[in-house]
Automatic annotation (TrEMBL):
One of its GO terms (cellular component) is lamellipodium. Coiled coil: none annotated. InterPro entries: Abitram, GCV_H/Fam206, Single_hybrid_motif. GO terms for molecular function: actin filament binding; actin monomer binding. The keyword Nucleus applies. It is found in: Cell projection, Dendrite; Cell projection, Growth cone; Cell projection, Lamellipodium; Nucleus speckle. This is Protein Abitram. Belongs to the ABITRAM family. Keywords: Cell projection, Nucleus.
Length: 203
């Protein structure tokens, strides 16, 4: 029997099934239709220490059934690569677990500054589609996840954990205001439901 294609609702419904460690230490925020592109939703995991982990939301086209990632690139333009991001100063990653990020972040220098719309990477799929993943929050780029370059499939298999895109550190004075333009988990779920209802009504 053929397997039914996975819908955005089914994909988003899977998110609560990720390890409880994520929800224990992080607050989930969402940016829907990034840069006006339908369903290209991002998820921002905000830790109590201000650190924001940028990931794909469950409804993003890249995470839908049948999508195959051909490659991922942190080369944003000819003169800009997120891989060239060099952080120096009193900065130390005290934990290798992305869900227990603890940073000493005084006197940082060299880290690339990102605006909300700053591109982080580009994802190329086997069907010819290309997706640009944005920061969604203002701050300093602390690190990018080079593991997804070598094994793109982990971005789809574990988007909220090993398949994260990047880590951003907002300014202290902006750590609360950066979420003003983002959606809560409940608001995001409402957006996804409305999309499905609209699609059903027109089909």
């Amino acid at each position: 029997m053929a397997t039914e294609p996975e819908t955005p609702v089914a994909a988003s419904a899977k998110e609560p099934a990720v390890p409880s460690l994520v929800d224990r230490y992080f607050t989930r925020w969402y940016k829907a239709d990034v840069k006006g592109k339908p369903c290209e939703d991002h998820c921002i995991l905000q830790h109590s220490n201000r650190i924001c982990v940028i990931t794909l939301a469950g409804s993003h086209p890249v995470l839908q059934s049948g999508k195959v990632i051909k490659s991922i690139s942190y080369q944003i333009s000819t003169n800009c690569s997120r891989l060239q991001n060099k952080v120096s100063g009193k900065f130390k990653r005290k934990s290798e677990n992305v869900h227990q990020l603890i940073f000493s972040s005084l006197l940082l220098s060299g880290a690339q500054f990102l605006t909300e719309l700053a591109p982080l990477c580009k994802i190329y799929c086997s069907d010819g589609e290309e997706y640009t993943i944005s920061s969604c929050v203002r701050g300093r780029l602390m690190e990018v996840n080079e593991n997804i370059l070598h094994k793109p499939s982990i971005l789809q298999e574990k988007p909220s954990t090993e398949g994260y895109i990047a880590v951003v550190l907002p300014k202290f004075e902006e750590s609360k205001s950066i979420t003003e333009g983002l959606l809560t988990q409940k608001q995001y779920e409402e957006v996804v439901v409305k999309r499905i209802s609209a699609t059903t009504a027109t089909s």
